[in-house]
């Protein structure tokens, strides 16, 4: 009885949270509402890709394709069937989320069955290729609006729908990892040959992860299509896939909480940067110099210095101060270069920030923010305080 | 079973030889880039995602070099010489070579002890950084292009494969006679007409006859021309092809006959064993990156200067990069002759798709080829399939 | 009755015949050794039995069923479990989780109820964990159940591989060089453990081992391979004095 009580309470809690967000967003500008919805969609995309990349270890970099399949499914259905069915918007949106999840899942099956025989970088590049093929196909299909895209009516802008999907996606992945059913997925990531020797059907496990991840991306696509009330091929380029990959990598492959945090951070940060409209180019160039210097200095300390945590922290602090000094000096020097005298818009820095995030992460902390861990206060305490009991016995 | 003839009926076979030649020319560029992928993969087992961006930087270097010779957009300089082209080629190759070495030193070398996927993520990061970071610092909107005045070789080389069928030509001649006669008759009639805008029925009849004869003649001439096969090669493209072949011969010599090349081959067979045998693998890898990137630089310079008006932006290397990667996989990644073969086949595949009337899908074909190769023969055409040791 | 039977099993890789018409038979309850110099084809034999490779020709019968070329995961389900020569643990999983993966092939609940976190799945997970804990006690790793398996010592990792294989509840256990890299005391413990597994748990055991003293003292019957061919078979005493075996090992004291 207690179990079902907790279950009911958490479902009600999730629903309450979603409508709380809806309430908060209602009073705001349409720009802020957009942020709320897209943040929810990116959380869904990142967590669902993490199921494939992090938990099952199948490095896919074409997730935007399934997002696109979902969005186009909803767009296509809306133009054909919405007027006839005459459903209320909420019911229609839920119906479209399910339909899009199914078509995206089928696309995932289509892509996954052949390509999951491949490993590592080959799989990555094939998923990228499939993503492009799907985009180019849509671009040349008159029924799907070709290069101009499809107008999607009606416009349905529910913040709650995006976040309900995000929470569902998080819950599903977390449930999987809390039960023994999650272990074969992790085992496949660790060692395929040993997994199959333990009776795990490796292909089936990979395909299930792939299809499940694609389904969530598809449902997110349906919400996007109705929110923007428009879908077109340029909305689903490789950049979108790389953005989602960056979120997963930053959060830590395999860590659901990591993906959620990274998705919100990496979605919010570039949006915030749009506010800065007059960034001197010399400052950006100086930042490149300072960041590079800091990264290699930190690497040097990590490899050559084995003092106490406190001494280490002091050195890192020194590096940060040093980097700021380098930034300041090189900005002054570069300010004289004629071609660096312009100012640029913060929005142009979006993908630059992502790419630097990827490279710096790989150089300093390849396991991502949280590694394979989940965010919990115990974990934070173990990082900063005394070792926990588990680590002491190890 | 009537589908195939229907499909074939839509094809213009008379343009096929020209398209095949175009495909080989395009393929030569892909082959140059593919060599870089394949050499790096051979030694490091790393897909150098940023290789396409090295190609892009090569095009920019060529652009800046041409500017420094005075071939700016304002167009102040008119005369060019082969010497300037050679200078552009050498500068592009050198700059790209060093860019490749720098990328290896600061991005890939620290990743060598990490899982392979970490190297892949770094490579993607570097590629995006050069694309989007480059956008901030390099001229890209509107995309510049190298002045076509740089290229002094403007003429075409025409290779007649087959003259037009004489019967067709004779037929056309006959029709030409008819054109002259009907035209003369019409002109004669015109003199007697009062109002040339409002012809009498006789005049109208003669005019129609004259126009019909004219049309028949044109059709006959077109038919005769289509029957004749002439391949037109712009001189610039021939020079591209020759340069590519020369570079490949130099590369083969370098890899097969020199000590550095032997060290490279040893490292690609067994990295650890090579280093135990006293080979400085870091030097070998730097050398590999230098050569591979320099070849991409050569390809970029030629692509941007000889194909008139090629627009350069920071995404210039993306599609050629992807296609060349596919070429490397198709030929068998890690295999140098394979990269050349794969490059040529990719170039042909692309022009064939355009020829068949599916030009919209010319960028998708690369991925389709890739997927088919990886699923059917993952080792590539000239590669070997390895089994994982248990 | 015969549990596993190899009948002229052969596999070729290109021109190399790694296993050349090898035939032997294991009876239920056997403690069977497979020995031979490096490159003799012992591990390849294991790979044939466990479905990693498909035999080029010949028959492999397990429990009355022909299993040559059956996928590895199906073979595990039929009741053959193995360990690996070059340890293949799920490195970033805990010791306990490694063993639960082994037990997972007996799961009854569908994936969908796991995604919904239904009580039957929770119950199943708990019981799988409890079973895994029992196995960890047998191999004496219950105290480190929550440690990441990559952090274990070499000897512990070998024992964990055994526990993980046993978690599949097999009829036949294949051990690939279980004593490699162990010190004499650890080998002693391993010897006792393998006997326990056969006598108390009731499994049939087939093992590859290089340490002759270990094999001779443990196994009741031995097959010797050399260059892919079977050169001798019989009880330890007969093997020890077989001239062909001595020749194969070239003077190594057997």
Number of strands of chain B: 2
What Rg of chain A do the Cα atoms give? 23 Å
Side by side, the strands of the main sheet of chain A go: 1-2
Structural class of chain B: mainly alpha
| Structural class by helix and strand composition of chain A | mainly alpha
Q: Any idea what the shape of chain A is?
A: globular
What spatial form of chain B do the alpha-carbon principal axes imply? elongated
Extract low-pLDDT stretches of chain B: none
Describe it.
The complex is a heterotrimer of chains A (394), B (390) and C (254). Chain A has 16 helices and 4 strands. Helix content of chain A is 74%, strand content 2%. With 394 residues, chain A is an all-alpha fold. The model of chain A is unreliable at 386-394 (pLDDT under 50). In chain A, the strands form 2 sheets. A two-stranded antiparallel sheet of chain A has the order 1-2. In chain A, strands 3-4 form a two-stranded antiparallel ribbon. By secondary structure, chain B is mainly α. The model of chain B has no long low-confidence stretch (mean pLDDT 86). Chain B is elongated. Chain B has helices at residues 3-9, 16-44, 51-68, 82-108, 116-137, 166-192, 201-227, 235-257, 259-269, 271-276, 281-306, 318-331, 336-355, 364-376; strands at residues 156-162, 229-234. Chain B has a two-stranded antiparallel ribbon. Chain B contains 14 helices and 2 strands; from the N terminus they run αααααβααβααααααα. Chain C has helices at 42-49, 72-78, 95-103, 111-115, 119-138, 154-166, 184-201, 212-218, 236-240, 243-249, and strands at residues 2-13, 16-27, 31-35, 57-62, 65-66, 80-82, 172-176, 204-208, 221-226, 229-234. Chain C has a 6-stranded mixed β-sheet with strand order 6-7-8-3-9-10, sandwiched between helices. In chain C, strands 2-1-4-5 form a 4-stranded antiparallel β-sheet, with helices on one face. In chain C, strand 1 and strand 2 (16-27) form a beta hairpin. In chain C, helix 3 (95-103) packs across helix 5 (119-138), helix 3 (95-103) packs parallel to helix 6 (154-166) and helix 5 crosses helix 6 (154-166). Chain C starts with a strand and ends in a 5-residue tail after the last helix. Chains A and B meet through helix 5, helix 10, helix 12 and helix 14 of A and helix 5 and helix 14 of B.
């Amino acid at each position: 009885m207690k179990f079902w009580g907790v279950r009911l309470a958490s479902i009600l809690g999730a629903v309450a949270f979603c409508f709380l967000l809806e309430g908060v967003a209602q009073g705001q500008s349409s720009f802020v509402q957009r942020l709320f919805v897209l943040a929810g969609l990116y959380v869904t995309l990142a967590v669902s890709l993490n199921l494939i990349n992090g938990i099952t270890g199948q490095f896919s970099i074409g997730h935007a394709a399934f997002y696109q399949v979902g969005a186009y499914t909803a767009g296509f259905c809306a133009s054909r069937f919405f007027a006839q069915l005459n459903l209320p918007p909420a019911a229609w949106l839920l119906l479209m989320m399910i339909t899009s999840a199914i078509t995206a899942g089928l696309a995932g099956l289509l892509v996954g069955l052949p390509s999951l025989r491949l490993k590592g970088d080959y799989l990555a590049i094939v998923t990228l290729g499939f993503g492009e093929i799907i985009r180019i196909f849509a671009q040349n299909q008159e029924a799907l609006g070709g290069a101009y895209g499809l107008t999607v009516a009606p416009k349905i802008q529910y913040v709650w729908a995006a976040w309900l999907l995000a929470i569902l996606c998080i819950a599903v992945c977390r449930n999987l990892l809390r039960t023994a059913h999650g272990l074969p997925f992790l085992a496949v990531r660790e060692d395929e040959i040993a997994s199959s020797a333990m009776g795990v059907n490796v292909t089936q496990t990979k395909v299930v992860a792939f299809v499940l991840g694609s389904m969530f991306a598809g449902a997110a696509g349906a919400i996007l299509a109705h929110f923007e009330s428009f879908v077109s091929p340029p909305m689903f380029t490789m950049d979108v896939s790389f953005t989602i990959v960056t979120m997963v990598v930053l959060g830590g492959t395999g860590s659901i909480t990591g993906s959620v945090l990274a998705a919100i951070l990496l979605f919010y940060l570039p949006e915030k940067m749009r506010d800065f409209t007059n960034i001197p180019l010399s400052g950006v160039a100086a930042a490149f110099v300072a960041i590079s210097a800091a990264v290699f200095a930190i690497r040097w300390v990590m490899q050559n210095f084995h003092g106490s945590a406190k001494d280490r922290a002091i050195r890192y602090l020194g590096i940060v101060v040093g980097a700021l000094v380098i930034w300041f000096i090189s900005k002054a020097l570069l300010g004289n270069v004629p071609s660096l005298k312009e100012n640029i818009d913060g929005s142009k820095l979006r993908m630059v920030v992502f790419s630097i995030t990827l490279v710096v992460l790989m150089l300093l902390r390849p396991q991502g923010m949280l590694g394979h861990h989940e965010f919990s206060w115990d974990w934070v305490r173990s990082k900063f305080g005394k070792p926990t009991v588990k680590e002491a016995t190890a | 079973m009537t589908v195939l003839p229907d499909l074939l009926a839509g094809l213009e076979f008379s343009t096929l030889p020209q398209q095949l030649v175009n495909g080989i020319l395009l393929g030569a560029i892909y082959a140059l880039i593919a060599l870089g992928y394949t050499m790096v993969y051979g030694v490091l087992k790393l897909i150098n995602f940023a290789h396409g961006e090295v190609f892009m930087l090569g095009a920019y270097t060529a652009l800046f070099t041409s500017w420094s010779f005075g071939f700016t957009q304002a167009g102040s300089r008119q005369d060019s010489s082969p010497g300037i082209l050679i200078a552009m080629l050498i500068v592009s190759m050198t700059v790209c070579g060093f860019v490749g070495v720098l990328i290896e030193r600061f991005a890939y070398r620290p990743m060598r002890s990490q899982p392979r996927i970490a190297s892949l993520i770094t490579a993607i990061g570097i590629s995006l950084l050069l694309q989007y970071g480059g956008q901030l610092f390099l001229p890209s909107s509107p995309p510049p292009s190298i002045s076509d005045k740089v290229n002094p070789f403007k003429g075409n080389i025409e290779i007649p494969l087959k003259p037009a069928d004489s019967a067709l030509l004779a037929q056309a001649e006959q029709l030409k006679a008819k054109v002259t006669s009907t035209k003369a008759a019409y002109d004669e009639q015109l003199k007697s007409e009062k109002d040339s805008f409002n012809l009498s029925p006789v005049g109208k009849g003669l005019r129609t006859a004259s126009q019909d004869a004219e049309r028949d003649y044109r059709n006959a001439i077109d038919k005769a021309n289509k029957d004749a096969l002439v391949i037109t090669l712009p001189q610039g493209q021939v020079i591209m092809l020759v340069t590519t072949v020369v570079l490949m011969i130099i590369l083969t010599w370098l890899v097969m006959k020199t000590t550095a090349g032997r060290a490279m081959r040893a490292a690609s067979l067994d990295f650890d064993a090579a280093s135990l045998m006293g080979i400085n693998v870091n030097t070998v890898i730097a050398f590999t990156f230098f050569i591979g990137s320099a070849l991409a630089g050569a390809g970029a310079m030629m692509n941007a200067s000889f194909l008139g008006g090629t627009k350069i932006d920071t995404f210039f290397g993306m599609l050629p990069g992807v296609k060349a990667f596919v070429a490397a996989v198709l030929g068998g990644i890690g295999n140098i002759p394979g990269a050349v073969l794969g490059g040529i086949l990719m170039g042909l595949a692309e022009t064939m798709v355009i020829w068949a009337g599916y030009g919209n899908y010319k960028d998708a074909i690369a991925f389709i080829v890739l997927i088919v190769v990886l699923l059917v023969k993952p080792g590539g055409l000239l590669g070997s399939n390895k089994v994982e040791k248990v | 009755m015969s549990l596993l039977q190899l009948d002229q099993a052969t596999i070729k890789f290109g021109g190399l015949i790694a296993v050349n018409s090898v035939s032997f038979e294991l009876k239920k309850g056997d403690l069977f050794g497979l020995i031979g110099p490096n490159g003799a084809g012992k591990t390849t034999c294991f790979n044939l039995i466990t479905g990693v490779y498909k035999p080029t020709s010949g028959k492999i019968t397990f429990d009355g069923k022909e299993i040559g070329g059956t996928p590895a995961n199906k073979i595990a389900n039929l009741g053959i479990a193995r360990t690996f020569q070059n340890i293949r643990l799920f490195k970033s999983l805990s010791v306990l989780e490694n063993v639960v993966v082994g037990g997972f092939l007996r799961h009854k609940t569908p994936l969908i109820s796991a995604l919904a976190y239904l009580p039957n799945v929770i119950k199943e997970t708990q019981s799988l964990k409890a079973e895994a804990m029992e196995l960890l006690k047998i191999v004496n790793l219950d105290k480190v159940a929550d440690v990441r398996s990559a952090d274990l010592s070499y000897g512990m990792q070998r024992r964990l591989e055994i526990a993980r294989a046993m978690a599949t509840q097999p009829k036949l256990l294949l051990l690939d060089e279980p004593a490699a890299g162990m010190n004499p005391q650890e080998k002693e413990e391993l010897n006792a453990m393998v006997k326990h597994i056969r006598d108390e748990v009731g499994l049939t055991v087939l093992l590859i081992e290089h340490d002759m003293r270990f094999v001779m003292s443990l196994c009741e019957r031995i097959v010797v391979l050399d260059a892919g061919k079977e050169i001798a078979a019989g009880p330890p005493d007969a093997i020890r004095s077989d001239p062909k075996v001595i020749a194969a090992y070239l003077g190594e004291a057997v």
